[in-house]
Amino acid sequence: MSKVKASRQSLERGWGFLDAFEVPASSVKDRSAVFIRETTHNDRKTEVYIKIYANRKHPLQRVFRSGRSQREVGNLLFFQSLGIPTPQVIAWGERRNPFGRIVEEFIITESEKGTLQLDEFVRSFCPDPEQSEQQAMRRHIAKNLGEWTARIHAEAFIHEDLKWRNILVRPNGTTPELFWIDCPNGRFMKKGKALDRKKLKDCAALDKLAHLECTKEERKAFIAAYLGDSGNAGSVAKMCREVENYRRRRFDPKDRTQREGS
Questions:
Q1: pTM to 2 decimal places
Q2: Distance CA 250, CA 163 (A)
Q3: Domain end (from 110, 143, 159)
C-alpha cells in the first residue's frame, strides 16, 4: 500500500493545473460534473475526463477529511496493483478554504477509447446467450468480474458502488477488455461480520442487472469464479441464494419504487 500512496501523492496537482483545460469548475454547484477535453500527455494527444466535485451544501462538509478525489485516485491505483484494469489517472487536486474545508476537487483520467458501459455492451454486442460466440463473451465477462471482486475482498476492501454503469468494456473478439471506473466510496474494513455483509452487498449490486440480463448459469459462473478453488457445487449454490436474497430484500423494493415514480 505504500507504493499506492506514493503514486497517489505524485499525481497531486495544485488547483491552477485546471486552467489549461478551461473547465468551468465554479459552475458546479452540487455533487459532481464531468467535462471532456483533449490534451497532450506523454507526448501524445489524448482525450481526458475531468470530474469536478463540489462541496457547497453544508458548512461542515469535508472539514479536515480526505477528499473524494484523493480516495478515488487511491482506489484506482489499488485496483491496478491487483491487476484490475482502470483508466490511467493523470492528476487530481483539491481546494480548501481557510478553515480546512474542501470546497472543490478534481480528478483527471484518460479516456478508454472504444468502450461502452457494461449494460450497453451486453445489449449491443452479446445479447444472445445461446449464440456460441456471444456466450463465450458473456462467460468471459462473468469470470473476470468474479475473480476481480474476489481479489479486492481478499484484501478486506469494499467497493460500495460495484454496478454495471461503473464497468467499461471494449470489444475484443470473445475476450472483451474490462475496466473499473468511479470508486470514490470504496474503503478497507476490519475483518468480521460487517465486512462479510458488505462483500455480499457488492456481489448483490452486480446482480441488480445480472438477474435481468444474464442466465442463471452465467450468474453461477460469476459466483464460481468469485469462490475460486474453494468453491464446489454446494458452496456456489449457497452463495447464489445469499446474493439473490440480499438483492431481493435490499435492492429490488427500491428499484421498484424508483420505476413507479418515474
A1: 0.91
A2: 15
A3: 110
